[in-house]
Amino acid sequence: MTDRNEDTERHRSEFVESLADYSRKQQAQHWAGSFNDYLRDIVADNPARAARSSHQYIWDMICWRGLEAPKQADTANRYKLFEDDLFGIDQALERVANYFKAASEGSEVGRRLLLLLGPPSGGKSSLVTLLKRGLEAYSRIDEGALYAIQESPIQESPLLLIPHGKRAEFRDSYGVEISGDLSPYTRALVDEKYGGDFARVPVHRVFIDEAGRHAVGTYAPHDPTTADIADLVGSVDLSKVAEYGDEGDPRAWSWSGAVYAGNRGLLEMIEILKVKREFLYLLLTLTQEQVVKVSRFPLIYIDETIVAHTNMAEFRRFLQEKENEALLDRMVIVQVPYTLCYTDEARIYHKLTSATPSFRQVHLDPHALAVAAVFAILTRLRPSERPDLDLSKKLRIHAHEEVEGVSDAEAERIVREQPDEGMDGVSPRFVVNALASAISQSESKSLTAMEVMLALKDSIDSDARMDAKVKKQWIDFLVTTRKEFYNRWVKEDVHKALFVSFQDEAQELLEKYLDEVEAVLENRKVDDPITGEERDADERFLRSVETKIGISDSGKTSFRQEIVRKALSTYKRGAKFTLSEHARLCEAIKQYLFQERRDVLRLVTSSTRADAETMEKISAVEARLVDDYGYDAHSAHEALNYVTTLLAQE
């Protein structure tokens, strides 16, 4: 106990010291000086960095966080900004990144509003949040240093102080262009406080901060009948009118609108299509021309990236109105669907649940999240154009698993045959709510895959929003999940746990299969390892293995030739041909072993009056499930009982 207390004290002391060190570094990052100092000390070192637009700045931030080029031509880049939080939507993330890349290069894309379109709980808000957190972190390193006119209410770029008559000379001297004009407030400030001497205007380093409304603005719509455009662009501050005597004085204007908060950075528009039409025209004009117009003032230059998001229902209503066509032309629309890969979906659940104390106190069996994910994906898929391809096979294709009769090229076509797939179905929030309900009812602090499926069924039954037809379909998907996926997974776990020598036995069977196949293809005899005599190849054994994965009699030769080619290729590399070299043959060998041992499994797991030896075997299997396969005592016991029931039904 004493050692534990000492460790706790040491960790706390280290944290306090690291916090103090962080504070010192933050202070060291600040910079302030005159505009002349800024040109000499900051701009001269890297003019292009000082003149970056908001799109360039965001793209540089994404690159700073890192990206990994695809290993295959048909896959997307992986962006480290998103990889720990967003799963299974790589194509959407690639399109978002491409928007910023194209905009940073000065193309017309930069004059378009970025609209993220997708179902609820699909990751749209999380994507924007990651952009904002990335900008905050980037602004605190040297590469992302951002400077502004110190007294500007909208953190304007100091380069805007350079008069238009001197900008061509600046371009020739520094090699970069300056776009935009000072705001009315800052123009009046320079004239009145500094006598027009812009060289003396103070400049300081600023840090992007959503909470402080520095270079990040956020607008969420409320009641459309009472929404005021002042929330975006400000309004007259009546308390200051008496001080300055004129409503047209920029100092009497409230510069607190979300548009001004996002200047030099990003403005997030939540559920954008719920706002009034005048709001949309203002925002789209801002993206197109980089200016906003408010009463009593000339055009106000704003450099910011507008990222908006909305759901499908709002977007469909928006499409039905003819007058919205012009607005659509000024948007870059990126669909952010639900993931269709169940392994990625399970990662989403793990992320959502691992941060919750109630979930951390409960053990989930190794397939609990996977079965929920399979069910969710089934609700999002649509029937394939191929009549012989059911949803279970299509789900496996989306998870990059091999499916008999489907080549890699065909699998790629199937994945892309319905672009709108994943835009509806079960949301991660629905599943996590069902998991939370199951945990609240669990007395063992352990949740099995079967209990998860029962919790999902209860959630479907009690959901008043769904009609009876949808409920029946979703419950059928749960049945499919159990029969086509969970049954196979849990049987495999129990089988491997029961037979310690599984890998050795499986490898021996693999080698026997290869020997027999080579003999058949070469039309030669085999030396029997027991009698030493020559015999015909064991066709019965070969077929008993191959039928486990549905290899037909007409397709056996091509399958066998494929296996031999893979084996030869492996041997040429100087490696040993193992089960990992061919997923389908591995599955066939496992199923064959399981079938051979099923009677032993029944004996071990189903004895009503088990003797001491049998009980010892049962305990050993349960211990192996716990130690090697991610179960706890409760879920291991339930898995054994469930597999026993399955065997009794076969």
UniProtKB/TrEMBL annotation:
InterPro entries: Prk_AAA (IPR013153), PrkA_C (IPR010650)
SMART domains: AAA_PrkA (SM00763)
Pfam families named in the record: AAA_PrkA (PF08298), PrkA (PF06798)
Highest taxon in the source lineage: Bacteria
Stretches assigned to the PrkA AAA domain: 33-388
Keywords from the UniProt entry: Kinase, Transferase
Keyword Kinase assigned: yes
An example Gene Ontology molecular-function term: kinase activity
Keyword Methyltransferase applies: no
Protein name listed in UniProt: Serine protein kinase
Organism field: Candidimonas humi
UniProt lineage: Bacteria, Pseudomonadati, Pseudomonadota, Betaproteobacteria, Burkholderiales
